[in-house]
# Entry
Amino acid sequence: MIDWPADRFMGKASALKLGMWIFLVSDALSFGGLLLTYGVLRGGASAWWSAGEPPLGIAFTAGLTFLLICSSLTMVMAVAAAREGNRRQMLLFLGLTILGGIGFLTGQFNEYFGIGHPGLIKEGLVFGHSHRATTFFLITGFHGLHVFSGVTYLTVVFVRTALGKYDGGNHNAIEVSGLFWHFVDLVWILVFTFVYLVPCTPGAA
Amino acid sequence: MTASRRPYLLVFLALVVLTALELGVVYVPGISHGLLVSALILLALAKAGLVLMQFMHLGHETRALKLTVIVPFALPALYAFVLISEAGWRLLR
# Structure
């Protein structure tokens, strides 16, 4: 395990971690742009929910929120296991985190296209037909893309863990992948609140 | 379950409780729209702060790294407040 002296400003944070943090700040500003667009459009709309559009499934997405919070917990457990050099636990918790991500993506697919029920698009929430629909698909789609890339990223880390690349307490790479995954969860917390929870009635703001 | 992992469980429970609170506050009968939105924003920021400081270990990093991450959000926050309230004012004008 190579050990470099603490930097005067950044302490023990590795270059990899600094790079990830700076990337996450810029990515957060991209989401900020989308959420700000949503806020301005909704704030200035006399009628946000046009007739014929379906309501959003809050109960179901609350379940997705819980699923993502759980996968954040298993991610943090995987990093803790990496610190202790416990490869078996790393694989267990990483696998659970990846399953959580896949579950979330399936849930979102179900929300859009419906598995066993029509789904939002068939019920009338169509990209481009109204500000509400377009901002909804833009924000949740962009976030879903991040969940997908997070799952891919974690799968690569999972394979490398299985190959023993992170044995002996080498936790830097997995911790940085954890930063990305927690960021994806953090963004969903904000998206869930603003896009789903802020109530509106059909035909009103 | 080693002692070092207990704080993660506490953070997890706090996140679940805050999410439940958010869902609860939405169904409070007769709550004014303004009060509800500010309550939701506060709860969301609390959850985001918890994930940032505990799960992402920002709380254990140096001051310089914390500033690097948190300070850039001051400007978008101000920008959001100005633009959204302006859009709302324009609607009521």
